[in-house]
Design goal:
Layout (H helix, E strand, L loop, with lengths): L1 H4 L7 H23 L4 E3 L5 E3 H8 L8 H4 L10 H14 L3 E7 L2 H4 L17 H12 L3 E2 L3 H6 L18 H15 L12 E10 L2 H7 L8 E10 L14 E5 L18 H9 L4 E4 L7 H12 L9 E7 L2 H4 L12
Parallel strand pairs: 3-4, 3-9, 7-8, 7-9
Antiparallel strand pairs: 1-2, 5-6
Helix pairs in contact: 2-3, 9-11
Length: 342
Amino acid sequence: MRFFCALLFLATSAGRLVAEDFAAELAKTVQNLEKNKAAVAAGSDGWLFFGGELRLLSLGRFWGSDATKMSRAHKPDLADPLPAILDFQQQLKTRGIELLMVPVPPKASIYPEKIVTGVDLRTTDPAPELHRFYEELRAAGIDVLDLSPVFVRNRENSRGPVFCKADSHWSGIGCVLAAEAIAEKMRGKIAKPVMAKEYVAEWKEVEREGDLASLLARDGHKPPAEKVAVQIVSEKGTGAPVQDDANSSLLLLGDSHTLIYHDRDFLPVRAGLVDQLALQLGFAPDLIGTSGSGATPVRLTLYRRSVKDPGYLAKKKIVVWCFAAREFTEATEGWAKVPIAK
């Protein structure tokens, strides 16, 4: 896999055994969670991990003929993510729209030692099946931006870790790094609008009560709010917040990773992915985000939007589809083929 060859993948036979052991340990953790009807596993140093992400990393091949054995989808015929992704890309391509897939790495694949002691990223890939799947997608013509290399390089960033310890989402610096990587892929493909705006940014510290901490709180223990460094973006001169633009040629589509630090229900501090992309690109993208699954439901929302506005898709040149990688196996709605327009 070219992804890890340059950065992480010094995988000797011993390294592969460590990877297998890591998956086996996660499988035990998931079994224990399911036995106790719990959703969150506590790691070391105050780190919390969502059971669904650990389950994904504990599995083998999860697409093709293996999908029905691995997926949480309620309907077996919707278990395989590959056909739906390929269909979505082809529909967009027919309309002259490019697709960039940005799966958000599982937190435990970036900080594996926080859930299983002794894992060394220099010799072990904690997510080998994910990376094989990305290679298969690329071979089929899907442009996949894997954020794992940049996240691993910044595991100990001066602004903090790239994921929140007690939340399932990326941190402020994780969001910024994701935006920078996406923007790098966009440059040269989309021209700035004639009435482009200038943006400025400043770093501040905010507090967030993590969603994983909230799940633990049901047992009577409520962890304290977590301090998170975020980069707040505003219009230069006016100080106005970034407004996602329905007329933008760039559409950001996805789950709550597109909403965190931006949407009113997800700590709206002007520091979300839309805000960071506006800062990087000099214009605000359009946004269709959901607090639920970024697999099928968000594509249904796109379809409804295009039905309501028949000229909507004609404005788009690129769709950035950003969602938690765990959706490949944990999306209970499954992976349906959804039309993007009538």
